[in-house]
Design brief:
This protein has 22 helices and 16 strands. The chain is an alpha/beta fold. The protein has three domains: about 130 residues, Phosphohistidine domain (Glucose Oxidase, domain 1); about 110 residues, PtsI, HPr-binding domain (Enzyme I, Chain A, domain 2, Orthogonal Bundle); about 325 residues, TIM Barrel. The protein has an eight-stranded mixed β-sheet with strand order 1-8-7-3-4-5-6-2. An eight-stranded parallel β-sheet has the order 15-14-13-12-11-10-9-16. The longest helix has 29 residues. Bound molecules: phosphoenolpyruvate and magnesium ion (MG). Phosphoenolpyruvate binds next to strand 10 and helix 17.
């Protein structure tokens, strides 16, 4: 019997069967010895040379990544170089060599550990990411002092699946795609640099497994199912065959579905449906366009700045402009930052909230930090001159909030008119409906907003009072709960009655088994990540609005979520089975 050993977060989709290679990082032995007074100058020179050599290496990696991937990806290494160039760190190493007469490796290692220890005690995801940067640099410096190769992942010459406690962005970026079939890490989340790299390199990856490395050894046969987030160790020959078939089917299905790229998303009864993409960083825009999306329905702008202490206007403008020009004349809906809750960065407040999801996040953070908000609005408005931008505010709870955000935007527009800064005078300004109060007051919000976009990820969490990131109560988090369906129906009706443009951009929009439900409820504009975009389009093209409406009528007459789910699954399977 094989065991499903662990589950994790799908960072990059795909299915792979292969041999495990447990990567423990570079096993560097740190020599520790004291030096004589007359050796101090030599030791410092060794240290300086290693710093220069490491900088050269990092710059070379940066250039390679900029050439092969993108400038954005390459910029991730800027923070590594900045750590190396930090005069305080350099001074500390020098002092340790001079005063404690320690060899350079020992001094560097002690100071890195000191920095890592002080950072690990801080509750801040951004600063925690820096720990990986520091240990990466530590390894490189010590390797250079000892003239050893720093990355053994590059030396792998046979096909393997990497298991590692964590991987640094440089280790991921330098992976050889011909040999590394997939990777699995104990640590990490979907937005870690490593996960972003995996998606950009199209290497299937599962992160955040907590314990996968302790459950495999080198050479174990493993299946990585980075569609459902499962890892199976020592599978039976039958299972291997089954997954190999599954892997082939997955690839074939992708190829088959890719034929839909240029076909319209139109139902059997000729109703036009619009499919847009959700992106976190500009680099994802190509894959979204290649999948035939008709623009960007949600640009989660906060992820652009995870590496920066403070987002500056020009940097923002350049990034928005890049996406806007790329999609022009298609729309790009830029959502102002949604930091706070589970997304806390260096520039957000450091005080800990008791209920972060109910705290100072999204538009609340922006209105509280009006200067930052104005910088972002200026950048977005400037970018609007280069294409079809829509501006969207997240987590609007009160009518006043929306009016205030809109007023601030209009003040900036007025400034731009007076100083001759060009922007799109007809820019549409809308809001995300993701808090129950916005559903209840949607008719009033419709007076002030040009469009609504429903964020079901949060709407489900706030309506059902279920923390969207809690595994313990995940069984309660169900978008098919009758109250959610009733709410969605209410939003559609209000938007129709007020002629307000309506779209939906939560994960629900990108789940093919919910497509019939959403069409039946009346949604026509769906925005999603690229993973299931083809499948959603396939469903759209295989159904009629009439049958979707009849399905929704039946669902709305049911009380139990189980019953609703069963009928939704049955209809989906009947119409189209892509699983
Ligand atoms: C949502 O809440 O549905 C949404 C799209 O926003 P986010 O997932 O970024 O909170
Ligand atoms: Mg949300």
């Amino acid at each position: 019997m094989s065991t499903i050993i662990t589950k994790g977060i799908v960072a990059s989709p795909g299915i792979r069967v292969g041999k495990a290679y447990v990567y423990h990082g570079d096993k560097i032995i740190i020599p520790k010895y004291t030096i004589r007074e007359d050796e101090i100058t030599y030791e410092i020179a060794r240290f300086e040379k290693a710093v220069e050599q490491t900088k050269e290496e990092l710059k070379a990696i940066q250039e390679q990544i900029a050439r092969n991937l993108s400038k954005d990806m390459a910029d991730i290494f800027m923070s590594h170089i900045m750590v190396l160039e930090d005069p305080q760190i350099e001074e500390k190493v020098r002092k340790t060599i001079i005063e404690q007469k320690r060899n350079a490796e020992w001094a560097i290692n002690d100071i890195s550990l000191e920095l890592i220890n002080s950072l690990s005690s801080i509750e801040d995801d951004y600063l925690r990411e820096r720990i990986i940067d520091i240990s990466d640099i530590n390894k490189r410096l010590i390797s250079n002092l000892q003239a050893t190769e720093s990355s053994s992942l590059q030396d792998i010459t046979e096909e393997v699946i990497i298991f590692a406690s964590d991987l640094t962005p440089s280790e991921t970026a330098l992976m050889n795609k011909d040999h590394i079939l997939a990777f699995v890490t104990d640590k990490g989340a979907r937005t870690s640099h490593t996960a972003i790299m995996a998606r950009a390199l199209e290497i299937p990856a599962i992160v955040g497994t907590i314990n996968a490395t302790s459950l495999v050894k080198n050479g174990d046969s493993v299946i990585v199912d980075a569609v459902h987030g499962r890892i199976i160790v020592d599978p039976t020959p039958e299972e291997i065959n089954e997954f190999r078939r599954y892997e082939e089917e997955f690839l074939e299905l992708e190829l088959e579905l890719a034929k839909l790229t240029n076909l319209p998303a139109q139902t059997l009864d000729a109703e036009e449906v619009f499919i847009y993409g959700n992106i976190e960083i500009p680099d994802e825009m190509k894959i979204i366009k290649d999948h035939g999306a008709q623009g960007i329905g949600l640009f989660r702008s906060e992820f652009l700045f995870m590496d920066q202490s403070l987002p500056d206007e020009d940097k923002q403008f350049q990034e928005y402009r890049r996406v806007v020009e790329y999609f022009n004349p298609m729309p790009v809906t830029i959502r102002t930052i949604d930091v706070g809750a589970d997304k806390v960065y260096a520039y957000t407040n450091h005080y800990k909230e008791r209920n972060p999801f109910l705290g100072c996040r999204a538009i609340r953070f922006s209105l509280e930090n009006e200067n930052l908000f104005r910088i972002q609005l200026r950048a977005i408005l400037r970018a609007s001159n280069f294409g079809n931008v829509k501006l969207m505010f997240p987590m609007i709870t009160t009518i006043e909030e929306f009016k205030r955000a809109r007023n601030i935007t209009e003040e900036i527009m007025q400034d731009f008119r007076s100083n001759g800064t060009p922007f799109d005078e007809k820019i549409k300004i809308g809001l995300m409906i993701e808090v129950p109060s916005a559903v209840v007051n949607a008719d009033i919000l419709a007076k002030y907003a040009d469009f609504f976009s429903v964020g079901t990820n949060d709407l489900v969490q706030y309506l059902l009072a279920v923390d969207r990131i809690s595994e313990k109560i995940a069984y309660l988090y169900n978008p098919l709960n009758l109250s959610v369906l009733r709410f969605l129906k209410q939003i559609v009706d209000t938007a129709r009655n007020n002629a307000t443009l309506l779209s939906i951009c939560g994960e629900m929009a990108g789940e093919p088994q919910y497509t019939m439900v959403l069409l039946g409820l009346g949604f026509r504009h769906l925005s999603m990540g690229p993973i299931y975009m083809y499948q959603v389009k396939k469903v759209v093209r295989s159904v009629s609005i009439a049958e979707c409406e009849s399905l929704v009528n039946s669902l709305l007459s049911m009380e139990s979520t189980d019953e609703i789910e069963k009928l939704v699954r049955k209809k989906f399977k009947e119409k189209i089975d892509l699983s």
